[in-house]
Specification:
The protein is of the alpha+beta class. 22% of the residues lie in helices and 23% in strands. It has a 4-stranded antiparallel β-sheet. The longest helix has 18 residues, at 16-33.
């Protein structure tokens, strides 16, 4: 983790507004800073189905994002994959 990507994980997004603020920040890091590279990745098992992978181009940290969907609040967590 570094200042170019993110310093903390998000175990779940408390509200849709929180997710939208996070999504805007992530989009800015990808488009403006060019510090995060997006890697599309879909798991075939039930667990973590439909998440997206991101890699920081500075520290090489991998991140896993699952967007909220109804009662599933989503997450943004470090990944070792």
């Amino acid at each position: 983790m570094c200042d170019k990507c993110f310093n903390t994980e998000i175990a779940s997004f408390p509200s849709q507004d929180d997710y939208e603020r996070f999504d805007l920040e992530l989009t800015k890091k990808i488009a403006n800073d060019k510090s995060i590279k997006m890697e599309q990745f879909v798991n075939t098992g039930w667990k973590d189905r439909g998440y997206q992978m991101y890699r920081c181009l500075v520290c090489e940290q991998l991140w896993k994002l699952s967007a909220p969907d109804y009662s599933d609040r989503g997450y943004f967590l470090r990944s070792s994959k």
